[in-house]
């Protein structure tokens, strides 16, 4: 049986760890990102999802991959996390974040769902900020709330097709995205790990294992999974 993972943003972080996990489980790996994926045997399609027409260059290739898959897992993982606020967020910057984080996933859905067979899955990467807000990242929060909506719509619109969906919402995970936001300041790191009940960052492999569980278990259809090691609320 031909099993395929199409992942966006697998060049690093959670997407890369997930590609590793699925490859170990016998999946063919196809990654969509600007940089390549450094993983033997994985296939790379270089795209910049911020471009409105990004799908044009690879639609034919993706269609052929999906047609040949007996079981396809589509993981919407690529994202952009800007520092901004509702007081200063400009429409064009907001559109760009929504294009990568929310519109590109739907572009892939529209292309690939017609080819997806029963047993396939569409998984979305949310965040703790999918269901709550903090100050200073309005566009990201809006997009991550939206991704839960898209997952729930997926579950409702694909009734009877044997394709399940879930949204995995990580907490503070040790990736380039988080390190880029925190910088090198040990005090900032301590303040972050200080609000995690286990006192540490999540390893990307732990999120990959959660994604694997959601892919392998259709009973998760429609679920929002909070994978955050228990954030302490103050
Ligand atoms: N890390 C955390 O603490 C955390 C917490 C909650 C939720 N999440 C979510 O988990 C997912 C993965 O996050 P991460 O921490 O692994 O992020 P990351 O290390 O920054 O990786 C992001 C991935 O997205 C790709 N990407 C970004 N912009 C792109 C573009 N314009 N076109 C194509 N690909 C693009 C990047 O690839 P290229 O640069 O090669 O294009 C990269 O592979 C995201 O949806 C994020 O919101 C992460």
Layout of helices and strands, plus pairs?
Blueprint: E1 3-8, H1 13-24, E2 28-33, E3 43-46, H2 59-67, E4 71-76, H3 91-112, E5 121-125, H4 138-157, E6 164-170, H5 176-182, H6 186-193, H7 204-216, E7 223-227
Parallel strand pairs: 1-2, 1-4, 2-3, 4-5, 5-6, 6-7
Helix pairs in contact: 1-7, 3-4
NADP nicotinamide-adenine-dinucleotide phosphate binds at residues 8-15, 33-35, 47-50, 77-80, 100, 125, 127, 170, 172-173, 175-178.
Low-confidence parts: none
- Structural class, judged by helices and strands? alpha/beta
Distance between the termini: 49 Å
What oligomeric state do the depicted chains represent?
A: single chain
Shape: globular
In CATH terms, the superfamily is NAD(P)-binding Rossmann-like Domain
Portion of residues in beta strands equals 15-25%
Order of strands, main sheet, comes to 3-2-1-4-5-6-7
CATH architecture: 3-Layer(aba) Sandwich
Order of helices and strands: EHEEHEHEHEHHHE
Number of strands: 7
For the CA atoms, what is the radius of gyration? 17 Å
CATH topology: Rossmann fold
Number of domains: 1
CATH class: Alpha Beta
Biggest sheet layout: 7 strands, parallel
Keywords: Oxidoreductase
Family: Belongs to the short-chain dehydrogenases/reductases (SDR) family.
Pfam families: adh_short_C2
Protein name: SDR family NAD(P)-dependent oxidoreductase
Structure in words:
39% of the residues lie in helices and 17% in strands. The chain has 234 residues and is of the alpha/beta class. It has one domain: Rossmann fold (3-Layer(aba) Sandwich). Strands 3-2-1-4-5-6-7 form a seven-stranded parallel sheet, with helices on both faces. α1 (13-24) links the parallel β1 (3-8) and β2 (28-33). The radius of gyration is 17 Å and the shape is globular. The structure holds NADP nicotinamide-adenine-dinucleotide phosphate (NAP). InterPro entries: NAD(P)-bd_dom_sf, SDR_DHRS6-like, SDR_fam. Belongs to the short-chain dehydrogenases/reductases (SDR) family. Pfam families: adh_short_C2. Keywords: Oxidoreductase.
């Amino acid at each position: 049986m031909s099993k395929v993972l199409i992942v966006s943003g697998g060049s690093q972080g959670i997407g890369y760890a997930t590609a590793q996990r699925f490859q170990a489980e016998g999946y063919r790996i196809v990654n969509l990102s600007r940089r390549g994926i450094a993983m033997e045997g994985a296939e790379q399609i270089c795209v910049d999802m911020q471009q409105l027409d990004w799908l044009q260059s690879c639609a034919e290739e993706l269609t052929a991959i999906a047609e040949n898959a007996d079981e396809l897992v589509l993981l919407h993982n690529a994202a952009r996390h800007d520092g901004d606020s509702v007081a200063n967020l400009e429409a064009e910057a907001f559109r760009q974040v929504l294009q990568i984080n929310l519109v590109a996933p739907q572009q892939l859905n529209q292309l690939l769902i017609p080819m997806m067979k029963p047993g396939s899955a569409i998984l979305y990467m949310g965040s703790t900020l999918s269901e709550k807000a903090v100050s200073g990242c309005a566009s990201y929060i809006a997009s991550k709330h939206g991704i839960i909506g898209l997952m729930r719509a997926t579950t409702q619109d694909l009734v009877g097709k044997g394709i399940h969906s879930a949204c995995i919402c990580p907490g503070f995970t040790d990736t380039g995205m988080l390190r880029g936001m925190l910088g090198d300041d040990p005090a900032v790191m301590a303040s972050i790990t200080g609000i995690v009940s286990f006192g540490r960052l999540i390893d990307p492999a732990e999120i990959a294992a959660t994604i694997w569980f959601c892919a392998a278990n259709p009973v998760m259809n429609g679920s929002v999974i909070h994978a955050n090691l228990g954030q302490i609320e103050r």
